[in-house]
Automatic annotation (TrEMBL):
Gene3D superfamilies: Ribonuclease E inhibitor RraA/RraA-like (3.50.30.40)
UniProt protein name: Putative 4-hydroxy-4-methyl-2-oxoglutarate aldolase
Protein's organism: Variovorax ginsengisoli
Coiled coil: none
Lineage, opening ranks: Bacteria, Pseudomonadati, Pseudomonadota, Betaproteobacteria, Burkholderiales
Co-factor requirement: a divalent metal cation
Amino acid sequence: MSKPNIIKDFERVSPELVKKAAEFQPAILSDVNGRRGALHGRIRALSPKMKLAGPAFTVEVRPGDNLMIHAALSLAKPGDVLVIDGKGDQTCALMGTIMMHAARKRGLVGVVMDAAVRDAEDIEEMDFPVFSVGTNPNGPTKEVGGRIGHPISCGGVTIHPGDFITADRDGVMCVEREKLESLLGKAAGKVESEAKRIAGIKEGKLAAPWLNQSLITAGVLKEGEEL
């Protein structure tokens, strides 16, 4: 039996894990996740200081139509991140101030869309986190069906409903719900390692400890040689 177009509920990454994982930058989580899971850089914060973290509430729409986003705003739960596969379309905006107010009132922590937004100045004043491919003053249609609560492709990354989404000025990162907990210890270790490396640089230890061996492996230096 085929699944319905609208799946109203699904398992989400827990609030406890969201709180722990939100302590780490998307870049850190990307590094410990094999440098995968980061959405294409076209999806950027509407304002540089915007950040978000939470489980994905996924929506797929036809380019230029936001009917299913309106439906999603009636179904998403507090703490969710609305993640929209808008096919990268920039010919019109899928959301603006009114819908962002509705999203905030619903308790959502932000919106990630592979599509354009409008009313950027108003949204910045709201300080509601929005990550999009840009802006466009054109409004959308509200006529075409789509899907809610299904796996989507957003920014070139497969995102399942309930996956962990985190974003900051660098961009947006997705970690699979089932995998998130296993990465937290590695992320903490990465933060500690980077802090030690920066401390060493400040003391004058500029060369990375792995550099010589990597140059030898790459054939740039001969065995036993050093920079």
